[in-house]
Amino acid sequence: MRRFFVSTLIIVLFFALWETASRLYLVNPAFVPPFSRVALNALRMFRYGALAVHVRASLFRALLGTAAAVVLGVPLGIGISSAWGKLKFPLGSLSDLLSHLSPFLLFHIVILFLGIGEAAKVSIAAWACLWPVAFNTAAGVDNIDRLILKAGRAFGGSRRDLFFKVILAAAAPKIFTGIRISAGYSLLMLVAAEMMGGRSGLGWLILNYQVNFRLENIFSIALVIALIGILLDALLVWVQKKFIPGGIEVYVNSSGA
């Protein structure tokens, strides 16, 4: 409760400082409108439907990209961690190298093969989200207490049982950490991709308002994007607390192995 209060207080102070600076002309209100005007304008844009359609389009693409990253990233992370002998280092190094490739550079390459439609935007979001999921999954598997695996084998657990009931269970907190990071990445990268090509979405809307010098609308969309990011993170935290027991960490490094 104390952390929640402090975090809320900092946010309120930030918005109050924003409002005061604009109202007292410490910054030019034409370039930085007051927070109250920005918030009311966002509500007005939702009310008249100018924003809701683009929010739905961007959210759908971001969630699809995140889902694709989870489907690909979890097996990749397990493969990086479980690769046999001499293959483990080169596979990890290759993945580390690929993770540093800029999604914005790849976007131009993706356009050559997929055009500027939905597939290209979802692919860029998935690429940005893939690596946090994969590397966190690998870290979770690497840190599993080996004594737990030995105990599972001693009790006659099959490979399937060990994989689903021990390995995935122990790595689940790390996997969810990667998913939370990826959810934030997907929305930000997608907005940037929509600016580079497209006819819908929050990124396209920001670019359109920028061309028409509608700064208040741009601030309103930025506020909506921040709120969506907070809500997505809160939802994932709730899912993690709901489906992953609080004591699951005992499976990870409890023996120092």
Question: Keywords for this structure?
Answer:
single chain; mainly alpha; MetI-like fold; 10 helices
Structure overview:
The structure is a single chain. With 257 residues, this protein is mostly helical. The chain has a single domain (51-251), classed as MetI-like fold (Orthogonal Bundle), CATH 1.10.3720.10. The chain is built from ten helices and no strands. The chain is globular, with a radius of gyration of 22 Å. Mean pLDDT is 82; it is low at 247-257.
Report how far the terminal alpha carbons are from each other.
35 Å
Q: Which structural class do the helices and strands define? A: mainly alpha
Output the CATH homologous superfamily: MetI-like
Choose one word for the global shape. Answer: globular
Treating each run of at least 4 consecutive H or I residues as one helix, how many helices?
10
> Major sheet: size, sense and barrel closure?
none
CA-based gyration radius:
22 Å
**Unreliable runs:** 247-257
Overall tally of structural domains = 1
CATH-defined fold name: MetI-like fold
Helix content: over 70%
Mean pLDDT: 82
CATH architecture: Orthogonal Bundle
Order of helices and strands: HHHHHHHHHH
Strand content: under 5%
Q: Would you count the extended β strands for me?
A: 0
